[in-house]
Amino acid sequence: MRLPSSIFVSVSLFTAETTAALYLSSTYRSAGDQIWQGLTLLFTLVPSVLVQLTLTFIHRDLSKDKPLVLLLHILQLGPIVRCLEAFCIYGSIGKIEEPYVSITRKKQMPKNGLAEEVEKQVGQAEGKLVAHRAAFARTSVIQAFLGSAPQLTLQLYICVLQRRVSIGRGTLMVISLLSIVYGALRCNILAIKIKYDDYEVNVKPLAYLCIFLWRSFEIATRVVVLVLFSSVLQIWILPVILLNFFTFFSYPWILFWMSRSPFPENIEKTFTRVGTTMVLCLLTFLYAGINMFCWSAVQLKLNDPDLINKSQNWNRMAVYYMLRFVENATLILLWYVFQTDFYRFISGALLVLELLIGYAIAIFFMLVFYQFCHPCKKLFSSSITHGLWEWSGVLCLLCRSRLDAGQCEKAVLESPRAIDKDTLNDAAVPESGTLD
Question: Of 403, 214, 244, nearest to 330 (Cα)?
């Protein structure tokens, strides 16, 4: 059984970011910056409360007689006590005989076209540890995109306005960036395990490295672009953010209404229709928050029992990255056009080029991951390069058809003029016999 290192990393990032944010908010209070203090605390406490609710919901603490655990969750110390509980369970594995075990069946990756099914006995302690890992993977995603991402954007914006980076603010930004990248990494792993639930998935270190580099460049360039654009066009940043957010928030609901499927009733048996709606709204809220900064890797499908679309759609990914690249390029070019004397010590053209290259590098590592390092690439019906090649072929075909249609239309419009001109020339030249 593997050491629960992912749980330790999640709790460490959560604790470090909360501590750094509380310290930084105290410095804002001492400096009299009440607005920055309030926003810093908001982006710290709201995701912390959601993390506590998620852990309580997954472990069903409300239906158990655990008043001390509930008190620690109220005091925002739930992740710490859950981490200690997970390590205690890990230490007890193999020391105490378990009377009940369950049997799981997982398929191995196909070898020579054949996939063998392997049975494995899972004890109660190991099952509890798996539940802890799944819970902390989800809380890492919540902490990353509902707390760390807006926190990093806010602190970088303050640095731009004040033209300096303090030690406390720089520390918080580094921790927030690591938290976002780790949350995106956990989101990728969750997507893989949900889509290929029947298979035993083993992610290699090289795959983790590719995902880390992919997400680091993607998220860092996205945050810098948003901050630079908002620093010169403060009024227009709000429509950009709202348009992005409501587009991704409403997209799963639009697909659900178009499918005319019945309302999901299998999320939790104890939930009423109102409770189910609230859970689905929170889920789509998180989905929109993820797609604001990076590709979510998980596509919601509200009419599916698992709420996840398990099909691999390369076209959707290609459209997302194409539109996001165009949006980032547009925002950074607008910043370059409207930049003030505040940026006279910065080479604007070089910064624009660096940001565009940084996003291109993120796309490159994404392609490397799906083409060479994906743990389930043998199960792909087509590779990502094949999908992108087909997508580019469709675009070229559309462009060629429009070009051909334009040429035909031009030929049709010009042909009557040519005929009339030839007719007039023929009529203007008299025949040789009529001159006599």
Answer: 244
